[in-house]
# Entry
Amino acid sequence: MESFEVNPRPTPNATTTNPLPRIVNTIVVCVTMQAEAMPLVQTLNLTEEEEPSIFPKALPWKKYSGTHEGLTVHVVVPGKDLKLGVDSVGTVPVSMLTYASIVSLHPDLIINAGTAGGFRAKGAAIGDVFVATQFANHDRRIPVPVFDEYGIGTLAATPIPNLVKALELKEGKLSTGNSLDMTPQDEEIIKANDATIKDMEGAAVAYVANLLTVPLIAMKAVTDIVDGDKPTVEEFLGNMSRAAAALSATIPRVLEYVNAKSISNL
Ligand code: SAH
# Structure
């Protein structure tokens, strides 16, 4: 495999401490579900690479690439489970995909786009697109000193105040777990995580991006209201295409905003 070089870790005062501010030229958009990815792939007019040469053969992972107003954009998707044929949702496939994509494609920025459950009590409504300000896990309970904190694994998002203001985006903390439903224990930890949105991948992408010092923006469209009265699965399925449309409308605007800017100016 190609040797891997990382750019300097962005810091809040990167303009003064970092002699080479990272300029956004190449972006990887990491999307879990095929149905979420396709409207975006079509909107951006990207081309699918058959058997992407950057990934080991036999993997179901997909890559759609092209340029958008001079930016190089790759949308990567973990694809369908080889045995069951359903989307490879959850933390493990997306972590592997994010790692491989960073190592091979050297993005200046990763966007994790997807859907999430939203908490009405925290101001979420169906179809809203949220930018995550913080990532944490709610299903990694390790009641041993320090490991408890490792399990939660809180990470701050790359600050993007100017982008959020310019595009009038909603912001909220994201809590991730490998279940679509929510046990009472999950609920307790999600509350402690102060989450507005809940998904099954975000904190895993943040873990990999943070390890490899690549800036990350997570954008999540709300498909279901967790503290509402409708069953999650029904609500999720009913709103999936609306959420995918909201993402494919918002992400091109984000791409246009970040294009050729320094991360520290976002
Ligand atoms: N495709 C399945 C469900 C997929 S799992 C179905 O057809 O029913 C749900 C996906 O949407 C995951 O990728 C997850 O990140 C996101 N998601 C949406 N609402 C969620 C919620 N309430 N809790 C956790 N993840 C949610």
